[in-house]
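User: Design a sequence. Structure:
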């Protein structure tokens, strides 16, 4: 049985108290929400905070406000179940409710939060193992070792961004609010993730994710497609988020478009060539095929998650087709 290491557990009731505790504990402290990612990591000795600061009892982090007209604010500690069931998210941002519904199982979604999901540790077959297993291969760059077993000549970690909501947030242009004792700042989801499996966030460790701001609906539509082995359970090994705006006229000409790939690299990957294939053109089968081809060409999955990497690359074309076709008007 894997046991948690000893740690002190703090439960602040206000944002100011949470960031103050974090400032006092310094690098020994770490925030926790549902704990569905952090606690397994602690059991595997991948993360070893001495002070764990729960963000679940801060009221401001537990609210959903607004609607599609004004934009919606989702507190970072809102559970995935609450996202899946929320009437306004379902009505105005069905892509978010859908992507959240694909995350793991109902039990995990009852505990896991949207904030924890957006800050999820990157994943790799050589890293998501217990301490003894990792010791057996002399660890790896991401934790305790000095070689990457996926790309042994590389000085970079290629562990994979594996959250279902991340590509969706990037595609729709969400913003995140961060707070620390130094103040607050807003950051675009698109600029929040580093292409580095170790240093994968632009967030400093002392910063608390307060909330997620969804943009108002002004004519855009979005969809998400997820590839995984077991439909009832698994992490994405490819996620495709598609977002378009059209002129709304008879030919449905695309005025803006984004295709974001998740689950194949340390950060969500924007396929600008796919957007370029769509913009200024009628949203038809030919253009959708061109965009899907661009996604296929750009995708370079590595051999560090489930399924053969070449097949995952092939699937990028199929899943981009599906994501874009889901946005076509009848
Ligand atoms: C069996 C299993 C299957 C899973 N399947 C999927 C899946 O299919 N898709 C998917 O996307 N994910 C999956 N997950 C990953 C994860 O459980 C979920 O992403 C979940 O939403 C994480 O939320 P949490 O609140 O439990 O995060 P936690 O474990 O509490 O935190 C995760 C990280 O975020 C930090 N953190 C949390 N909240 C804040 C905050 N407000 N401010 C600053 N830092 C914060 C923590 O310090 C930690 O580093 C799975 C996990 C398991 C165990
Ligand atoms: S990509 Fe390399 S360094 Fe990163 S977790 Fe995997 S084996 Fe370790």
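Assistant: Done.
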């Amino acid at each position: 049985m894997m046991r948690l290491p000893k740690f002190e557990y703090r439960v602040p009731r206000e944002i100011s108290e949470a960031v103050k505790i974090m400032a006092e504990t310094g690098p020994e402290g770490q925030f926790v929400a549902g704990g569905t990612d952090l606690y397994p990591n602690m059991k595997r000795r991948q993360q070893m905070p001495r002070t764990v600061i729960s963000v679940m009892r801060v009221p401001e982090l537990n609210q959903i406000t607004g609607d599609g007209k004004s934009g919606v604010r989702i507190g970072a500690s809102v559970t995935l179940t609450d996202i899946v069931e929320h009437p306004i998210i379902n009505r105005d941002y069905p892509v978010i409710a859908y992507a959240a519904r694909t995350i793991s199982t109902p039990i995990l979604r009852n505990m896991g939060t949207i904030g924890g999901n957006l800050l999820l540790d990157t994943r790799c077959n050589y890293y998501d193992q217990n301490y003894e297993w990792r010791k057996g291969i002399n660890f790896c760059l991401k934790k305790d070792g000095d070689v990457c077993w996926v790309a042994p000549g590389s000085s970079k970690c290629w562990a994979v961004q594996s959250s279902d909501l991340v590509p969706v947030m990037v595609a729709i242009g969400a913003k995140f609010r961060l707070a620390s004792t130094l103040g607050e700042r807003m950051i675009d989801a698109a600029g929040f993730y580093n292409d580095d499996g170790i240093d994968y966030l632009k967030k400093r460790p002392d910063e608390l994710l307060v909330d997620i701001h969804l943009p108002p609906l002004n004519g855009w539509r979005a969809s998400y497609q997820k590839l995984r082995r077991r439909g009832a359970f698994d992490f994405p090994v490819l996620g495709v988020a598609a977002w378009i705006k059209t002129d709304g006229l008879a030919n449905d000409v695309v005025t803006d478009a984004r295709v974001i790939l998740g689950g194949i690299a340390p950060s969500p990957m924007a396929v600008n060539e796919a957007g370029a294939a769509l913009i200024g053109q009628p949203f038809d089968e030919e253009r959708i095929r061109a965009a899907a081809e661009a996604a296929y060409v750009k995708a370079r999955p590595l051999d560090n998650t489930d399924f053969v990497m070449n097949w995952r690359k092939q699937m990028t074309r199929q899943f981009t087709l599906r994501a874009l076709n889901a946005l076509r008007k009848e």
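The first strand starts at residue 8 and ends at 10. The CA atoms of residues 31 and 53 lie 5 Å apart.
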